[in-house]
Amino acid sequence: MKYLEMWQLTKTYPAPVGEAVIVRDFDLSLEKGEFVSLIGHSGCGKSTVLSMVAGLTEVTAGGISVAGREIEGPGPDRGVVFQAPCLLPWMTAVENVILGVAQVYPRLTHKSHREIAAYYLELVGLGDALDKRPGELSGGMRQRVGIARAFAISPKVLLLDEPFGMLDSLTRMELQEVLLELWSRDKKTALMVTHDVDEALFLSDRVAMMTNGPSAKLGGILEVPFARPRDRQGVLEHPMYYDLREQLIGFLEGQSHTHGKVDEEKAVAPAEKAPPLRSRAVNLEEA
Amino acid sequence: MAFLELKGVSKGYTTSGGRTEVLRDINLEIEKGEFVAVVGYSGAGKTTLISMIAGLVRPDTGTITLDGKPITEPGPERGVVFQNYSLLPWMNVRENVQLAVDQIFPNWSRDQRRAHVDKYIAMVNLTPAAHKKPHELSGGMRQRVSVARALAMDPAVLLLDEPLSALDALTRATLQDEIENIWERDQKTVLLITNDVDEGILLADRIIPLSAGPAATLGAAVKVDIPRPRDRKALNHDARFKTIRGRVIHYLLGAGSKSQGKVREAVQRPRILDELGITA
């Protein structure tokens, strides 16, 4: 059964001359309980696809359906984990999670809301930090709150937009294990955007590769054959691991010849715009 | 005796809640000309480690010696490259490098110093941008200036504190190649601090995991016996690469990890979730 469907998905923006095509005719379907990653270079449009599925960006053409119903705008049937966890800085970890829970179960008592929120925070290893504010938490801990918040509303579909992109590579691996364990409890249909090849292989059933924009589309799909439940050691030692890894790296490298290097040499290049990513998130929470 | 040696080094800080041990019983020996990578979590104390070797911070216990002499303060024989570049914003690329060279080699002639500066700017491929100010440069270019400045001081040891962590993947790969090329040419003693296992394996002769803090300490060193120059793509097929990668990751996610890494099994599930029909 196709649970999450995207057909002929297209996104364009008006440009001074004509229009800028970000994504064109993007088709992808996920079975119920499937974990699919969308991989591609920064700026290729993969986050735009996810944002359209989340209902945060309007679709120019094509459509998206969840459990057989076409989506209209954002909704609690889709839980989103963003790159920056976007926590409210004046609220504690548990209050941040309660906020979503109370929206989804308006009839429950505050005590029940708190029980649910605390439960998911304990699952992600934050049992001792329920009453801490975002400013008192490390980047990895904040993103744990973001994961707990997404799971606590029990969505039909989980959408992850480079959820660990701002963390160092080791904290990232730790959180991948937390996510995987939480996910394997009831195998929610999940779509994750990432550019980390190891992350995609560790978590996914399939990896969808996106070509570079403009007019990005699906470049191919890689099946990930590792048995579940998975653990890091087992995955790393799987005889096919490094072959699959190379296929993905090869795809990305092939794509980078068409763009990428140019940016680095430009006088005011991406880093000029890029570093705020991290500081922006910090400001959001500490301002 | 090794060229750079740390013996029983520990360091803690006093906070409002009492004393926090950052590093505990660090023992490290680096031979002359060796490239060593220390890989660990952010917040584990990697920067504290570099700062002590740089002489910016004193250890609480233990000794640090370079070429047999104890380190007590910063000195020109140790060049440091920080993650945040630390360039002077009102000076252009050449002036930033020149500043260091003028300090270290005051007895050289003007022409000699200028030629020296040009050589290192060329080494990091920044000659066309030599007249540019830091704000006109990308992150990768700024970090190259920082590398050129450290190298131009001709230090006996190069200390790299997550020099590439703030850069995107493509720029990082380019700079990794440059660092390897420069090291092959100069054969400097290098200590690289990073959170990226692959980066460590690509560049270093030995890779040493640092456990998660508090009270972080070094795990067993793994020798990287892969011939140079190492090709990122070819590494993927290399059995040695896979073994080394597996061992370091295994330590860092296992014995050397934070206790709260895994989902806790003993969590009490609230009954309300069953009433709602939620299975997770």
Task: Write the CATH architecture name of the domain at 2-77 and 155-256 in chain A.
Answer: 3-Layer(aba) Sandwich
Helix fraction of chain A by DSSP (H/I, runs of at least 4): 40-55%
Number of β-strand runs of chain B:
10
Question: What is the structural class of chain B?
Answer: alpha/beta
List the helices and strands and how they pair.
The complex is a heterodimer of chains A (287) and B (280).
Chain A: E1 2-14, E2 19-31, E3 35-39, H1 46-54, E4 61-66, E5 69-70, E6 78-81, H2 93-104, H3 110-123, H4 139-152, E7 157-161, H5 169-186, E8 189-194, H6 197-203, E9 206-210, E10 218-223, H7 232-236, H8 241-256, H9 261-265, H10 270-273, H11 276-286
Helix pairs in contact in A: 2-3, 2-4, 3-4, 4-5
Chain B: E1 4-15, E2 18-30, E3 35-40, H1 46-54, E4 61-66, E5 69-70, E6 78-81, H2 93-104, H3 110-123, H4 139-152, E7 157-161, H5 169-186, E8 189-194, H6 197-203, E9 206-210, E10 222-223, H7 232-235, H8 239-253, H9 271-275
Parallel strand pairs in B: 3-8, 3-9, 6-7, 7-8
Antiparallel strand pairs in B: 1-2, 1-4, 4-5, 9-10
Helix pairs in contact in B: 2-3, 2-4, 3-4
Summarize the entry for a quick read:
The complex is a heterodimer of chains A (287) and B (280). With 287 residues, chain A is an alpha/beta fold. Chain A contains eleven helices and ten strands.
